Amino acid sequence: MGERRQVGDGVWAVPVRAAIAFTALIAAACGSRQQHERIAVFTKNQTNPYFRSVRLGADRAAAQLGATVTHYVPTRPDSIPEQMNEIEDAITKRPDAVVLVPVDGKAMTPAVGQLNKAGVPVVNLIDPADAGSFVAFIGCDEYDIAVATGRYLLDKMGGVGGVVILEGVGGSVNSANRVRGFRKALEAFPNVKLLASQPANFQRLQALQVMENVLQAHTAIDGVLAANDAMAMGAIEALASANRRALVVSINATREAVDAIKAGTLLASGDCNGHLQGCMGVMAAVRHVRGLPVPPRWAYPATIVDRSNYHGADVPDEDRMCPAWETMIR
Fold first, then answer.
1. At 98, is the secondary structure helix, strand, or coil?
2. CATH topology of domain 16-140+274-300
3. Among 146, 156, 205, 283, whose Cα sits 20 to 30 Å from the Cα of 329?
4. What is the pLDDT of residues 205-220, one digit of tens each?
């Protein structure tokens, strides 16, 4: 049990002992038959640690369920042409199902149409696609998590000061929803001023560069609302280099974010668990192929990870197991 990773991350073998240990969960999640379904999983890039967590979750679910996964990852981050070509390639190989994180919900509509025409079931994961026929959408409630994370920061600031928003990719649905949630949180704090709201494309280096420019423009910054953990890491680096201090929050609760929370450099991260998303996406795809019910939509609840509760998120993704389906879908 394991899978050949097509691009980006080399070859990862799922430990045999993990498959043995999870035999009981296989029956609970998708029935006792070992059918070796072939699932194609599409994620957006190799640079964001969040998507590595998603891929590890997909691998672990496949090991538990007796399925195999092939990963498709653009070599150029968030490349629309590459993902379209990868989908065309996958169609020729006739997977039993696809788990798709579209690099752009609108631009990938023709590719989704090709999958639908070919009769390949599609689970839409994390970033909602604009159009197409899907088994289910599985993801976070981006807006609710952003509202909760924003309010957490603003409360810790005492409701006073100036903040900066680091946005994701312009035009992406999840970035728009997270920024909208941050702005909603600000409405309840009239004494907090939004100093700047700029895109950094969910990338650490770009966030570092954006934050360096913002620090030059504003002598006092009390808080940073980063739309993902990678950008928060860039902001923290820029603050440290400038010998400046500000409270920083982000979204996704990746391992690097948890490490930063432990170190005291990141205040908190809204938990949009990538490992769990990968688990649920593959589990939903396998269940559908096996004729088992899958709800049309499942959203991860909004929770905040901080120094009071990070221990549950402190387990490396490689050591995590996927929960039984029934514990998540009630």
1. strand
2. Rossmann fold (3.40.50)
3. 146
4. 999 999 999 999 999 9
Per-residue confidence (pLDDT) for residue 301, from 0 to 100 = 79
> Is the CB of residue 207 less than 8 Å from the CB of residue 248?
no
User: What is the pLDDT at residue 311?
Assistant: 86
CATH of 142-270, one of 3.40.50.720, 3.40.50.2300, 3.40.50.300, 2.60.40.420: 3.40.50.2300
Residue 277, phi then psi, degrees to nearest 5:
-60, -45
Strand partners, 192: 161
Query: What backbone torsions phi and psi does residue 101 show, to the nearest 5 degrees?
Result: -100, 100
Q: Which residues of the chain have pLDDT under 70?
A: 1-35
Is the separation of the CB atoms in 285 and 95 below 8 Å?
no
Question: For tokens 């928003």, what's the residue?
Answer: 165
**Half-sphere exposure (Cβ direction) of 329: Cα atoms closer than 13 Å:** 23
Residue type, 153: L
Backbone φ and ψ for 310, nearest 5 degrees, come out as -70, -15
The model's pTM is 0.81
> Cα dihedral angle (117, 123, 128, 130), rounded to 10 degrees?
10
CA–CA separation, 51 and 206 (whole Å): 18
